[in-house]
Amino acid sequence: MTPAQFIEQLNELKRRGRPLFYVGAAAVLLVDLDIILYVLHLYPLQAHSRDAFTAYWIAFAACWLPIAVLYLALRIIVNRYAPVCRTCGAKATWKLRSEILVTGHCPSCHSAFFVTPADPRIGPSIPSGRASGS
Predict the structure, then answer these.
(1) pLDDT for position 26
(2) Helix (H) or strand (E) holding 130
(3) What pLDDT shows up at residue 133?
(4) What is the C-alpha to C-alpha distance for residues 131 and 124, in angstroms, rounded to an integer?
(5) Do 83 and 22 touch, CB atoms closer than 8 A?
(6) CB atoms within 10 A of CB 128
(7) Low-confidence spans in the chain with pLDDT less than 70
(8) What totals of helices (H) and strands (E) does the chain contain, helices first?
(9) Do the Cβ atoms of 93 and 82 come closer than 8 Å?
(10) What is the dihedral of CA 52, 53, 56, 62, to 10 degrees?
(11) 7: enclosing H helix or E strand
């Protein structure tokens, strides 16, 4: 992978992940708000019964479910589209982009992240054929 391909792959990751994050965050906010308002409507804060505390804890757990689903969906996008180190398999994200571009090495295992293609112009300067002096 060259640095240009690395940046292109990170741009693809951002292009796929950003809409999911924004739409997912809005959906999570609406679902959690619905859960909270429904439970508070059924059991107002002044109700200190055992049923009210149970409903509050169930609502608290139910609010974490959409957050976990959004997190897993974002992890799937990162696992599918993020550039990967050839040696250790570490994912490169936008957070590590500048470090990888500057050093050219993986932050986890410090091996070369980019493949530098061999330049065919570099080589012996003696033309093929008979060597001088024979």
Answers:
(1) 97
(2) none
(3) 55
(4) 13
(5) no
(6) 6
(7) 47, 116-134
(8) 3, 0
(9) yes
(10) -110
(11) helix 3-42
